[in-house]
Amino acid sequence: MPIRPRAPGVFGKHRARCTGRSPSSARKSRPSRYGDAASARVGSNHPSRRQGIRMKLNVNGIEHDIDAPPDMPLLWALRDLIHLTGTKFGCGIAQCGACTVHVDGSPRRACVTPVSTLEGKKILTIEGLSKDGSHPVQRAWAEIDVVQCGYCQSGQIMSAAALLAKIPAPSDTDIDQALSGNICRCGTYPRIRAAVKRAAELGAGHAIAAAPSDLPSMLLPSVTVPARTA
């Protein structure tokens, strides 16, 4: 029996089923979470449909003037308005830790933190941790080769930096408690714990100093941690 030829466009239809988009739109970038395209699809009570207000956010030592609804989560202000995309969306309900940033030195889940609560506060993202990846936690992460897929790692690093700024020589229990809200779907938890200990060895006491030169470094007392044994 002769092979029946495929109907024109069959591959395009298949790709549309896989991606949820039509072939003609498959190459277009996804619209902003709070952009006009999203506004057209949601109800009038959605933050993207309500009137924005002008506010200032101090992010990584730089003042940003933004126009956003008061209840817009910080995550989307960072990604869509300030264009800092190192902070990731994972769950939207503060359960995975991928969106972790620092607010006045404490770890905070950006996906549930309204921007209106942050005026006058200092926000630190993964981009502000160091200019060149020289922060002890980042150096330890690279040395231990923690990353597998990497998606959750900016949140893991931010939580680890906050821990080491508070407890320069953490115990296993300290590490487990501080990072218990950060989920790694690749299961790199043993390497994460080892990297936090290595960061302590590298002198992570200055952990929350941000990249911009106009921010003062916050130095904590140095500690001596026994070297790792083979």
CATH topology of the domain at 50-128: Ubiquitin-like (UB roll)
Helix share of residues?
A: 25-40%
What portion of the residues fall into strands of 2 or more residues?
5-15%
Number of helices: 7
Distance between termini?
67 Å
Assign an overall shape.
Answer: globular
Keywords:
five-stranded mixed beta sheet; 230 residues; globular; 7 helices; alpha+beta; Ubiquitin-like (UB roll); disordered C terminus; 5 strands; 11% strand
Summarize the structure.
By secondary structure, the protein is an alpha+beta fold.
Give a structural overview.
The protein is α+β, with helices and mostly antiparallel strands and 230 residues long. The chain has a domain at 50-128: Roll (Ubiquitin-like (UB roll)), CATH 3.10.20.30. Helix content is 28%, strand content 11%. It has helices at 10-19, 36-39, 74-81, 136-144, 153-166, 172-178, 189-201; strands spanning 53-59, 62-68, 100-103, 106-109, 122-124. A 5-stranded mixed beta sheet has the order 2-1-5-3-4, with helices on both faces. A hairpin with a 2-residue loop joins β1 and β2. α4 (136-144) packs across α7 (189-201). The longest helix is centred in the C-terminal third of the chain and has 14 residues, at 153-166. It starts with 9 loop residues before the first helix and ends in a 29-residue tail after the last helix.
